[in-house]
Amino acid sequence: MEKLVLQNLKTADVKEAVRHPDETVRATAAQRVCRDIRSKALSDAERDFAQKLLKHISEDSADMVRRALAVTLKNSPKLPHDIAVKLAADIESIAVPVLTHSPVFTDADLVEVL
Fold first, then answer.
1. 3-state helix vs strand vs coil in the chain, percent to 5
2. Are 69 and 57 in contact (CB under 8 A)?
3. By the 8 A CB rule, do 44 and 17 touch?
4. Is 40 left (phi over 0), alpha (psi -120 to 50) or beta?
5. What's this model's pTM, rounded to 2 decimal places?
6. Which CA distances in Å does 77 have to 66, 74, 95?
7. With contact defined as beta carbons under 8 Å apart, do 35 and 59 qualify?
8. What is 39-87 written as a DSSP string?
9. Contact 109/85 with Cβ under 8 angstroms?
C-alpha cells in the first residue's frame, strides 16, 4: 500500500484533530487543518484524504470541534456538500454559520432545511 505524503496539510495538525484527548486541542487543530484545506492547492490524493478527514471531524463528539469546522469552512466552496448538509442538521451554533454562508447549498437543500 502506498503511503500518502501530505505536502499541504501538516501531519501534526491532522493527528491532533483526530486523536488528541483534549477537545480544545482538537478544535484548534481542526481549525488549522480547515484553513489549509480552504487556502491551499491540494493534490488529488490530499483532497481525497481531506474529505475523509472532514467527515471524521464532522462526527466528533465535541461541539467545539464540529463548530471549528463549520465556522472555518462556512464560506468555502471546498466544504463537501454531504458534510455541509450534516452540519446544517447539527445544533444551532454549528448549523447557522453553514446555512447562512455556505455556497455549496442548492435552493432545494435550503428548502428541505425549512
1. 65, 0, 35
2. yes
3. no
4. beta
5. 0.91
6. 18, 9, 16
7. no
8. HS---HHHHHHHHHHHHHHHT-S-HHHHHHHHHHSTT-TTS-HHHHHHH
9. yes
Q: Buried (b) or exposed (e) across 50-61, using 16+ Cβ within 10 A?
A: bbebbeebbebe
Give the DSSP letter of residue 103: T
Number of H helices, E strands in the chain: 7, 0
User: Which amino acid appears at position 107 of this protein?
Assistant: D
Q: Tell me the per-residue pLDDT of 30-60, one tens digit each, with 9 for 90 and over.
A: 999 999 999 999 999 999 999 999 999 999 9
Which of 73, 93, 86, 94 lies closest to 113 in space, CA to CA? 86
C-alpha cell at 57: 471531524
The residues near 5 (Cβ < 8 Å, ≥ 6 apart) are 45
Distance of CA 31 to the CA centre of its chain: 8
